[in-house]
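Objective 1.3, modelling of assemblies. Example input:
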Amino acid sequence: MSRTAPWSDQLLPLGGPRRHLLDLDDCSREEITQFLDTAVAMREILRRPVPKAPALTGKTVVNVFLEDSTRTRVSFEIAAKRLNADVINLSGSGSSVTKGESLINTVRTLEAVGADLIVLRHPSAGAPYLAATHLRGSVINAGDGWHAHPTQALLDLLTIRDTFGRLEGLRVTIVGDILHSRVARSNLWGLTRMGAEVTVCGPPTLLPPAWPAGLAGCLRVTFNLEEALSGADVVMALRLQRERMAAGRLPSLREYSRLYQINDARLARAAPQVLVLHPGPMNEGVEIAPTTAHGARSAIEDQVTNGVAVRMAVLYLLAGAPADTPLRPPAAEAVRP
Amino acid sequence: MRPVLLQGGWVVDPASEREELADVLLREGCVAAVGRGLGTPDDALVIDCRGKVVAPGLIDLHCHLRDPGLTEKETIATGTAAAAAGGFTTVCCMPNTDPVVDSGSVVETILRTAAREGSVRVLPIGAVTKGQAGRELAELADLAAAGAVAFSDDGRPVASAALLRHALEYSQLVQRPIIDHCEEPSLTVGAVAHEGPVATCLGLRGWPAAAETIAIARDLELAALTGGRLHIAHVSTAGGVALIREAKRRGLPVTAEVTPHHLTLTDEWLLGEGLHWPALGGEPLPRRAPYDPRTKVNPPLRGREDVAALIAALADGTIDAIATDHAPHTLTDKLCEYDQAAFGISGLETALAAVLALVRSGALSLRRVIAAFTIGPRQVLGEGARAASPGRLAPGDPADVVVFDPDASWVVDPHAFRSKGQNTPLAGVRLQGRVTHTFVAGRGVYGE
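Predicted structure (tokens):
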């Protein structure tokens, strides 16, 4: 990649080891399984008296969070530290981003200072791709606008697999503001890739108006919650953002909650052993009832714990793995329109 | 000035319905003769045009020269040099400069700069409203008297129906068309990509086709109400061309243009990697990352059905002209997050070659394409066409001529553009069809 060519067209060498994790839509079944299995191994490390392994010794991980975050940010920091990496945390405020420094210059500067791997959360969809095409090192997408949150989807897949022992054939329903949700999108690619059937449900104004034709067999779209919950093995509630009222998409939180809140009464329509998930942070009482959030069906805290293990796995496989780790089977077909 | 003999080329002159092997003689700035076996005057420069097409110089109804005020992106000098390299002998430049072209004095400034530094004819388009702010009419008569050939607030729509009504009424005083950028702004707040499956996958805010069709429907009603001359800029939707076709069928004097990128590219280009694009020659395209900001344009690249409808509309005359909407930007303005990147494609130097791909595929005839670049634009301009290239090869007319090799294969290298704008999604793409010579008033302004 030439430093003088500002437009880098090469994102990845074909057939080589995976350098970035930007979304799940170009991950094969084998790769996703490898991420999950490695996360299970990482979980063992986390249970030790001294929960550390030296896999990333000498590697520098920089977390660049240009959007607020508690769980993802702390989770990545802990994950990198558990693997003995040197970790730097950068947020928007306090960095030269406030002086107008471009994303490309920011990440190049970090690489010049020694970053091997950059974890990026950014409000604009596609920002991690821009960063990735201008770096020699690795980029992990920690959430880019509405587009993707691959590590969230992986931890959701792990949590589901822990409960059911599989993903194939499961019926997963995602409820909420699907239109603006990177969690919904990444889960959609990950779940359908692993053979699950997905239903997305929300008010008509918060559902994308158009879906790729290729998803027709494995995706159901409805604004009827009863229908969406019927027989579901997993129900994932998404946080509702208050800004949606200002944009004219919803009349009130009260109306949303009356129509779409996930609570124990509604879950009676789902499968008997239904698992309840939420990516957090929660608006308890809005999209999810407090009793459901903290009830027996809920795996929300497990999600958080699994998040550390999954992020350790991703960091390890991208930056710490031996060179011959087969991470990218050649014919990975993206789920595309 | 030496006479020039363009010898042995395939002459395509839609105005005279000529499509044949012929020589063209240019003398004293005019077309002297067109025919077979023309004799060579003693001091003539003879250009061997065998295997090439000789056509009237192309006219671009819609480009952004950024001069005055935004000259880091382009100047009249660099923009017209780019035009000449693309085979254009006349360009109509949009008024969204700094200052906005909303008074005769700014028109005069542009014409003076063009006379001094321009390679091709420059016809300024004036603003519809003062400052293009959409509130008060600009001094349309003052603008026309100074040389403006049309009026537009392009970059934006004229959002107020009442104001557009008055503009269409008032413009009849000076017999110049109002060119509207058709977009219902409340439906496109923050939108950066065509609302469709691709935008859903990429998590990008969508620009629904309805935002264009609603604005076109409104504008057509106002044109019917007022009798004013309406021209629809860069139509991009199947719904839009259907409305225009129906309006023309009812006898409304409306015209429309389409860009080369809307005729050839779709929103799939935003997905990047693994593109295969038969329309542009069948070779696999250079691998791209998704979210390449060089695909960001307003109106956005749309779906395959829209592209098919636009091609059909150009073929059947619903669309009158191809116009580049050449929109050069600096690297800084383009090389950033998709949301932040400026809208626009630098298109003067690839326009002809891109559309020729549709001729090769059989979707359009060569004659229709040349007409859409020559007599079509002149018909749109009407009265304002007086200062434009003649759009035909008739003896006695100014010798504005383009010669191109339809088979020459070349790879688009934006670093070699004469335009300052290197922002094209076609970077690295192999195209077929290359301009070899461009003449304005018999003088070579581009030549290999």
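Chain B touches chain A through 35 residues (CB under 8 Å).
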